[in-house]
Specification:
This protein folds into 3 domains: 4-137, no CATH class; 140-310, no CATH class; 331-426, no CATH class. A hairpin with a 5-residue loop joins strand 13 (418-419) and strand 14. The strands form 4 sheets. Strands 1, 2, 4, 6, 7 and 8 form a 6-stranded antiparallel beta sheet that branches. Strands 11-10-9-12 form a 4-stranded mixed beta sheet, with helices on one face. It has a two-stranded antiparallel ribbon with strand order 3-5. The chain is of the alpha+beta class. Helix 3 packs across helix 6 (107-120). The chain is built from 12 helices and 14 strands.
Length: 442
């Protein structure tokens, strides 16, 4: 009956990227609740469903279309099914309906069905979310009488920089080298591969299931035709500046139906081996894309799984980046720094925030947001994980405060406020550098 855990993890993703630059407008204030920017459109399942106000207004009372009701009926059948044979019966019908809705651009029907099930039937919601993601990111295309499985994939890259992390068009030569390395180390021998010629920031990824599906089909056709997909970056949203953030290579592969997709689907391949070779051989090809950045390539995977993996890996990564950044900019050692961890609450726990400053003072120089992912809540063992990462970075003083901080942002610039050692939520401000203008903007 599918990967229930995976779907529930997908319910709430926001990948805020962690460290917010000491510059204004780091937070996307257009997003309801000010939760920061979105990592993927899967976020919409989550936020839309998780907000109690929205749930009441838009799903429970509202009539939903015939198609949305049918999605609910089929997903409920699938969730209650007792075996693989019955699963296959429901999955075939559900898949067919979702394919039609994706093709027709019926995003509202998909979301209405998800919203309603979120309120009434969590297992069915997860089955439906799983199936919609699968149908958006994969499909079958025919060429010359032969059928091919198509999979949209994503290769996340974690990066940080004191300056800015690039996003944008990828030069032809670089694109070709990346394809060679991905083809050799990450995908199966028979896979035909196409990439978009664009390094995406989180804000620029497709935001809806329909858009994701469209991109899958375009890239799949490109893979079969042996070409890449040119993207007009001028239509994409501007990239917010963060000290630590994620970038994505997006592409699709085509394999003859039923053949191996990834290198680790082959008898002599493993995920670990694929990642090791991708970092070793692909890393140098990525350098021209990420000039002036420290970066860590993650393993390519199916589109939605890779987005989730990136959201999860970016949390400890941004803590490590923050400590490295503070050491280089302030001249302090890790031992001379203090981190204060606090939980920030709206109706419930929204996220943890970590304020960094000198051990011998109260100042907060820098902050990191640690968003909750998937089904995480107050009961999850998160502060221990944060503390472990910081201690690995060399910090001797990590203070976890028990108090409930209000979910507050700076009125002027929208930056999150961070906990200090006194238990106050304050604006992070870097110490003034010699011969440099003050970084305090307000
Ligand atoms: Zn501010």
């Amino acid at each position: 009956m599918g990967s229930r855990t995976k779907a529930r993890e997908g319910m709430r993703m926001n990948g805020q990227g962690g460290i917010v630059e000491e510059r204004p407008v780091a937070i996307d204030v257009t997003h309801p609740g000010g939760r920061g920017r979105l990592a993927t459109m899967a976020h919409f399942i989550a936020t839309g469903s998780a907000d109690p106000m929205k749930r009441t207004r838009f799903s429970s009372r509202k009539r939903i279309s015939t198609d949305a009701a049918e999605l609910g009926r089929l997903a409920t059948g699938l969730a209650e099914s007792g075996g693989k044979l019955e699963d296959a019966f429901w999955e075939a019908q559900l898949g067919e309906l979702i394919d039609r809705l994706l093709h027709d651009g019926a995003e509202d029907d998909l979301n209405a069905a998800l919203d309603r099930l979120f309120d009434t039937n969590a297992p069915a919601h997860d089955e439906l979310a799983d199936m919609i993601e699968a149908r958006a990111e994969s499909g079958v295309l025919s060429m010359q009488g032969q059928e091919f499985d198509i999979l949209l994939f994503n290769v996340p890259l974690l990066a940080w920089s004191r300056f800015s992390i690039p996003a944008g068009t990828i030069a032809q030569g670089t694109l070709q080298s990346l394809k060679v390395q991905l083809g050799a180390h990450v995908f199966a021998a028979g896979a035909q591969l196409a990439l978009t010629d664009y390094l995406y920031s989180p804000d620029q990824l497709p935001r809806t299931f329909v858009d994701t599906h469209q991109l899958m089909r375009e890239l799949g056709a490109a893979a079969l035709a042996g070409r890449d997909l040119k993207l007009d970056g001028s239509t994409l949203p501007e990239t917010n500046r963060f000290l630590s953030d994620t970038r994505y290579l997006v592409g699709a592969i085509a394999v003859r139906r039923g053949m191996p997709v990834f290198r680790w689907n082959e008898a002599d391949g493993t995920r670990e081996g694929a990642l090791r070779e991708w970092i070793k051989q692909g890393g140098p090809c990525l350098e021209p894309l990420l000039t002036g950045c420290a970066f860590q390539p993650l393993l390519a995977d199916a589109y939605h799984a890779a987005c989730r993996q990136a959201d999860s890996a970016s949390r400890p990564y941004s803590l490590r980046a923050s400590v490295a950044f503070l050491q280089t900019t302030t001249g302090k050692t890790a031992e001379q720094l203090r981190a204060v961890v606090g939980g920030f609450h709206d109706q419930r726990l929204e996220e943890y925030r970590i304020g960094f400053g000198p051990r011998d003072g109260e100042a907060v120089w820098h902050g990191v947001v640690w968003p909750l992912l998937g089904a995480e809540d107050e009961g999850s063992e998160i502060t221990g994980e944060i503390e472990n990462v910081l201690r690995e970075c060399g910090l001797k003083e990590v203070v976890v405060l028990d108090q409930r901080f209000p979910f507050e942002f700076c009125d002027d610039c929208g930056a999150p406020l961070y906990p200090n050692i006194e238990g106050d939520a304050v604006h992070a401000e870097m110490p003034e550098e010699k011969n440099a203008p003050s970084q305090t903007l307000h």
